[in-house]
Specification:
Layout (H helix, E strand, L loop, with lengths): L7 H10 L7 E4 L3 H5 L8 E2 L19 E3 L3 H12 L1 E7 L7 E7 L2 E7 L8 H22 L1
Antiparallel strand pairs: 1-2, 1-3, 4-5, 5-6
Helix pairs in contact: 1-4, 3-4
């Protein structure tokens, strides 16, 4: 099930960009609480194993010990709603077993980022690489404000 959730570095970058949507899982931060309980870092912990299945959000009370980890679909929706970044993942017509992504910024077809097709890139790999790219775009946009 972990393949549906963004990876540690992406979740941290999303938090820094202001992501605060309810999530079903979190990553522990390095702190005395998790050291005491020997919680492995970079490992997804599901909310239902912690607090009766209530979705959690990034907030000040929890910030010292954890941060949320969204599903890929949540992250893509959040970027579309907050940064006007639309994405799509496509199967390559030129290569078998290969996927690539397209990013459109602000519905401006002059601002399209399209990934090149390479052999044997899975759909999950294309999502991961696409999310890395939109994090870069959003970070650049946030810094320019």
């Amino acid at each position: 099930m972990n393949k549906y959730f963004v990876i540690f570095e992406q979740a941290l970058a999303l938090k820094e960009l202001g992501f605060d949507e309810p999530c079903l899982a979190y990553y522990p931060k390095e702190c005395s609480y998790h050291k005491y309980y020997n919680t492995p870092l970079h490992e997804i912990i599901f909310v239902w194993s912690m607090i009766e299945g209530v979705p959690i959000k990034n907030n000040d009370d929890l910030e010292s010990v954890l941060f949320t980890v969204p599903l890929y679909s949540q992250a893509f929706d959040w970027f579309r709603n907050n940064y006007s970044l639309d994405i799509s993942i496509h199967r390559s017509w030129a290569m078998d077993n290969s996927y690539y992504y397209i990013i459109i910024q602000n519905m401006d077809y002059n601002k399209i980022t399209q990934q090149e097709s390479i052999p044997n890139r899975s759909h999950v790999q294309a999502e991961l690489e696409c999310l890395d790219e939109i994090i870069k775009i959003a970070t650049k946009e946030k810094l320019s404000k």
